[in-house]
Write a structure and sequence with these properties.
By secondary structure, the protein is of the alpha/beta class. Helix content is about 30%, strand content about 25%. The protein has eleven helices and 13 strands. The chain starts with 8 loop residues before the first strand and ends in a 9-residue tail after the last helix.
Length: about 325
Amino acid sequence: MTSKPPAPALRIATRGSPLALAQAEKVVAAIQNTTHYKSEQFDIKVKTYRTSGDRMQSGALSRIGGKGLFTKEIEEALLDNEADIAVHSMKDVPTIMPNGLIIAAFLPRSDFRDALISRYQSINDLPQGAILGTASLRRQAIIKNIRPDIVVKTLRGNVQTRLARITAGDFDATLLAAAGLERLGLMESASAILSPDVVLPAVCQGTIGIECRENDEKTRELLEKIDDPVTRMVSVAERSFLRELDGSCRMPIAALATKSKDSIKLRGLIVRPDGAELIGDEAQSATSELETLGIELARRLIEKAEPGFFDGH
């Protein structure tokens, strides 16, 4: 009697943090809900990878390598055919993709706002000289612009680690992505959800992107079925803005694109790293001109900035 061949497997690569695994599970659920999955009946296997960013838990991200720290090993797994798809927080993904890889799908964007974690209810409620922990230059610069008296110190680690440091009293406050708290069922940890008018989010904050090999037509066909078109549109606009600014974790940059009817509005911000100066603007265009929208807004901000704008500390 011949044995039945094993079902084909879709191998998903992700980081191993609780948040990364929660995001991978959202992708698994989305795939399992497709008619393609229900008709094909293949296995889905989640494989975890420890990235350079996971190993380097001390020091600011801007000094140890920036965005690619959280994607390099996972993308190598795709290129080496150890995995079929990779799940990313899109705010961690560099704007220049490795040759042969593409973002084939975006899940619907979650809450893009920042959350304040503190025993205080707002940034203005923090006491004089309060200590705020973050590894984000964007958050540091915007908070220093609002409250120059606040002392910013590096705080790294997964969401649970950072929450524990606040509870222990090591810091007076931190900022975390509301989407991450939501995915982990930890929204009650937030003392306030901050309007983008107060703290403009990171590019693609709250967005899960799914990467695969460009020549893997079968996987691309599957991922097309879970791609959210509106999230793709706003992501293209925000990432083109960031790319034109040569953005990385070394530069305090924020952006938020929103869709209404047949157009996309993009708000962008650049801030001196010490918070001394903040330059913002917004633009709007048809949904067919998203790359141009991001590029033109970035150039407008560059024109407004004095030479050496990003050199301040």
